[in-house]
Amino acid sequence: MKPVTSIFDLENLARERLPAVIFDYVHGGAEQEITVQRNLDDMKALALRQHDLRDVSERTLAVTMAGDAARIPLAIAPTGLAGLTWANGECEEAKAAADFGVPYCLSTMSICTIEDVAAATGKPFWFQLYLMKQREVNESLIRRARDAGCSALVLTLDLHVQGKRWADAKNGLSIPPRLTLSNGMDIVKHPRWLLGMARSKRRTFGNLEGEVKKARNVSALSEWVESQFDPSFDLDTVKWVRKLWDRKLILKGIMHPDDARLALDVGADAIIVSNHGGRQLDGAPSSISVLPGIADAVGGRIEVFFDGGIRTGADIIKALGRGARACLSGRACLYGLAANGREGVACALKLLEEELNDCMALTGITDLGQVEPGVVTAQPSL
Ligand SMILES: Cc1cc2nc3c(=O)[nH]c(=O)nc-3n(C[C@H](O)[C@H](O)[C@H](O)COP(=O)(O)O)c2cc1C
Questions:
Q1: Domain range annotation of the chain
Q2: Which residue's CA is minimally distant from atom 30 of ligand 1?
Q3: What single DSSP character describes residue 262?
Q4: Other Cβ atoms within 10 Å of 124 Cβ, number
Q5: Which of 27, 160, 190, 276 is catalytic?
Q6: In the annotation, is 51 catalytic?
Q7: Which UniProt keywords apply (predicted)?
């Protein structure tokens, strides 16, 4: 592998290794990708307060997230179809997270199943649930997550309909990817990826395969999935899930202080301030811009996590300085997985840790459990 000095190098390696249809799926977002760009731009625009006259020789990076130990304030975010970037990708990503010591969250839309990941790591992980219209499927997924020892259920709130991803539609993304006239040449030019897929245990929505009796083949399963996103999802739906799940419940996709207050009312243990990495509502504000208002509304009563645009360790400090307890990373770890499997994910986590550690030293922070307000500011005008 070429020398990797940052997440951006992993992104470039992922771009080289993956066929465009898969890279665009990972990298892109909804419609014009306004919100994808806002997440990155607004993060970059924030300034860090430099503090030099402090002894920072002892620094504590570890925190807990929903009761689970995290060596750095970061969990791996749920990403559907991660297993299309690397053979048995979700298992590899989960193993890297377990070795490193951060929580891993498996998506409902993964290629590997809940049971595959449990067997691969032997450690508790988080399971992300998309509520399907067919309620028995949700009940079954929740039961399976409990039986597999998942310590937290992450309920995603922002999928009443699926955001339109123009690149995926143009590239003819299908599950599993099919050779078509338009993408055939490109896929064939990526033999390492093709070989990896040939070695993969599964190639479709692993968690749902056995649940949907009438979906006798893969294309029927994909059609079923598309028909299952539920526009009637509301607070009562969340209450229904809360009754079924007695371990930690984390609500993902909070972008407004009112929704954060409702999360308190329904007994959530934590929330994730997230716009789905800009893959749902194009035009939504960046998640870092709404974080302080939401953290204020919650007032420390439950844990506030953040995702959207984490590409460096400094970005983690920026989120903590604006009120998050910890962050999740979607693309940064996925680029690592696509670049070099489990080792690539380990590399992404190590890079973020090193950058975080350096950033703490230069901003005078010794304990990430206690980042004072004022560490993050708007860039002063000249
Ligand atoms: C390829 C991809 C697939 C995703 N799939 C899911 C998913 O299945 N469930 C979910 O709740 N969020 C999903 N997300 C959103 C992530 O969990 C997370 O909110 C987002 O990636 C954070 O932004 P970042 O990529 O800039 O870190 C996905 C994101 C990406 C990039």
A1: 7-370
A2: 79
A3: H
A4: 17
A5: 276
A6: no
A7: Flavoprotein, FMN, Oxidoreductase
| Pick from 33, 88, 24: nearest CA to 345 | 88
**Distance, CA of 133 to CA of 197 (rounded, Å):** 31
The token pair at 134 is 């067919």
Find out whether the beta carbon of 163 lies less than 6 Å from any atom of ligand 1. no
At 227, which amino acid appears? S
Q: Which atom of ligand 1 is nearest to the CA of 107?
A: 8
Tell me the torsion sign for CA atoms 245, 121, 158, 217: negative
- Nearest CA to 357 among 112, 15, 73? 73
Rounded Cα–Cα distance for residues 226 and 22 (Å): 19
Closest atom of ligand 1 to CA, residue 307:
22
Q: Is the CB of 35 under 6 A from ligand 1?
A: no
Mean of the pLDDT values across residues 246-273?
A: 98
Q: What are phi and psi of 87, to 5 degrees?
A: -55, 130
Least confident of 14-18, 200-204, 275-279, 350-354: 200-204
Instruction: Give the amino acid at 80.
Output: G
CB 26 less than 6 A from any atom of ligand 1:
yes
Cα angle at 151 between 150 and 152, to 5 degrees? 95
Q: Which amino acid is at 168?
A: D
Q: Are 247 and 146 in contact (CB under 8 A)?
A: yes
pLDDT tens per residue, range 71-88: 999 999 999 999 999 999
- Tell me the pLDDT tens digit for each residue of 103-151: 999 999 999 999 999 999 999 999 999 999 999 999 999 999 999 999 9
